[in-house]
């Protein structure tokens, strides 16, 4: 399935969150990641983020799609990440 | 159609971008907006953001969906925005 992940972590935790998210998804913009992911890895990714989250401060949203058939993606301005981008 | 907007504007332009995005969509997290939008308003929203963007610095991504049938949304941690949230 296809996933878009957006998060907002306090700066004390954001580098940990970045490291976790990049294990599973592509970084596309500050705090935004996307990619194809298996159900098993999606469960792992959520669990790893839940391990570090402070639920009173941080925020995580996952949008998951069984198909990309009905989606379109338009980007303008600086292209900051993507599949071909190595940080 | 349903739109998810994520942006990354330089701090000199981010308040303008926020003001524009909130005319059309709901704010859900720092730099993340979503909502149902007409094709006409989608064109307007893009034009307004393109008016202020510095394409060498700023970044805007739109994910558009004709249907939400195949999508799921999971959120954890602090709920920062949403339809019921008035800034």
Automatic annotation (TrEMBL), chains A, B:
Species the sequence originates in: Anoxybacillus mongoliensis
Oligomer status and interactors: Homodimer, forms a heterotetramer with a Cas1 homodimer.
EC number assigned by the record: 3.1.-.-
GO MF terms, alphabetically ordered: hydrolase activity; metal ion binding; RNA endonuclease activity
Annotated Mg(2+) binding sites: 8
Gene that encodes it: cas2
Stated family: Belongs to the CRISPR-associated endoribonuclease Cas2 protein family.
Function: CRISPR (clustered regularly interspaced short palindromic repeat), is an adaptive immune system that provides protection against mobile genetic elements (viruses, transposable elements and conjugative plasmids). CRISPR clusters contain sequences complementary to antecedent mobile elements and target invading nucleic acids. CRISPR clusters are transcribed and processed into CRISPR RNA (crRNA). Functions as a ssRNA-specific endoribonuclease. Involved in the integration of spacer DNA into the CRISPR cassette.
UniProt KW keywords: Antiviral defense, Endonuclease, Hydrolase, Magnesium, Metal-binding, Nuclease
TM spans (from-to): none
Protein name: CRISPR-associated endoribonuclease Cas2
